[in-house]
Here is the input.
Amino acid sequence: MPTPVSEYTTTPVLTVESDETLASAVEAMAAKEIHSLVVITDGCLAEGVFTSTDLLQAVADDADLESTTVGDYMTPDVVTVDPNDDVEAVAAVMEDHDIGHVPVVDEQVRGIVTESDLRQFLAA
Here is the structure.
């Protein structure tokens, strides 16, 4: 029987808007000990994902963390999944798109599934 991805979704998900500074995003990520943020619109729709890998690129580019925005480094055109999607199908989507984080969305962002969440599924 298929397992809905909602059973392995990290909630609540930490979100930011694209105009927030990298410094603000990094502070939030460090405080929650997480590696990704879902970038949302005013209507709580996913417009991107910002990850620790994106931060590393900003540092490599010598970006000013106090003035550079999340929108400058986020991954746009984000791939999303529905809370009722089968967790194995979600893993395949992540593999097909070579991504480690995927927002779980129905009408709004409900959570995020990460590679760590998939490891928990496999270990169960």
Summary: The first strand starts at residue 15 and ends at 17.
